[in-house]
């Protein structure tokens, strides 16, 4: 059995998962909002968030595990793991109740890849935001409402570490310009968690 990468304090990770058997995890618009509310409640205290994208049957998150929680207690991998478990369980229970379903909503484990370079960080932010266009949910990723992209052009309060991300891109202009540059999507082929036949129906 393949061992999962632990979520260690002070490290950056790309997390992603999809619905069990490719099932949709978001049925209607309110589900996306509720997912993020639960995320802020359970994950916000233990992780900083740099980018996210929620699609019908999967999601992507770019996070950094904090050194301490909001109470000032040192975090451990097990504590962070438990917070994510609480988050996914709470969302699953809500969806099961709302849509009269039973059983697992997500695949058994969520994938995680440690982000170890600035170059990979920048590429991931761009990849995550362009995901809806990659999967042909929209013609222009900038119009997609369930990613963090548009929040970087807003002054509204957000759980995102906007200033830090924009600094990596050398400001808003650099952020916008680099998102428009065509890149080698093949370098992220291993992150594709659905097959082509699902893209139009998931």
Main sheet properties? 4 strands, antiparallel
Query: What number of domains?
Result: 1
CATH class: Alpha Beta
CATH architecture term: 2-Layer Sandwich
How is the topology of this model organized?
Layout: E1 12-18, H1 29-42, E2 47-54, E3 58-65, H2 77-98, E4 111-115, H3 118-134, H4 162-168, H5 172-180
Antiparallel strand pairs: 1-3, 1-4, 2-3
Helix pairs in contact: 1-2
Q: What does this protein structure show overall?
A:
This protein is an alpha+beta fold. It has one domain (12-192): Transposase IS200-like (Alpha-Beta Plaits, 2-Layer Sandwich). Helix content is 34%, strand content 14%. It contains five helices and four strands. It has helices at 29-42, 77-98, 118-134, 162-168, 172-180; strands at 12-18, 47-54, 58-65, 111-115. A four-stranded antiparallel β-sheet has the order 2-3-1-4. Residues 190-202 have low confidence and may be disordered.
Write a compact overview of the structure shown.
With 202 residues, this protein is an alpha+beta fold. Helix content is 34%, strand content 14%.
What key attributes describe this structure?
Alpha-Beta Plaits, single chain, 4-stranded antiparallel beta sheet, 202 residues
């Amino acid at each position: 059995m393949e061992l999962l990468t632990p979520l260690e304090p002070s490290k950056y990770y790309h997390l992603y998962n999809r619905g069990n058997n490719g099932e949709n995890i978001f049925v209607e618009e309110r589900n996306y909002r509720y997912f993020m509310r639960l995320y802020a409640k359970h994950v916000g205290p233990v992780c900083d968030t740099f980018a996210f994208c929620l699609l019908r049957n999967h999601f992507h998150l770019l996070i950094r595990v904090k050194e301490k929680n909001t109470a000032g207690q040192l975090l451990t991998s097990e504590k962070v793991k438990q917070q994510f478990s609480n988050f996914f369980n709470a969302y699953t229970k809500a969806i099961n109740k709302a849509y009269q379903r039973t059983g697992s909503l997500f695949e058994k484990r969520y994938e995680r890849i440690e982000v170890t370079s600035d170059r990979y960080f920048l590429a991931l932010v761009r990849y995550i935001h362009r995901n809806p266009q990659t999967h042909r949910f929209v013609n222009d990723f900038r119009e997609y409402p369930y990613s963090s992209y548009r929040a970087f052009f807003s002054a509204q309060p957000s759980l995102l570490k906007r200033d830090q991300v924009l600094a990596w891109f050398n400001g808003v202009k650099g952020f916008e310009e680099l998102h428009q540059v065509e890149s080698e999507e093949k370098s992220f082929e291993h992150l594709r968690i659905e097959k082509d036949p699902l893209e139009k129906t998931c």
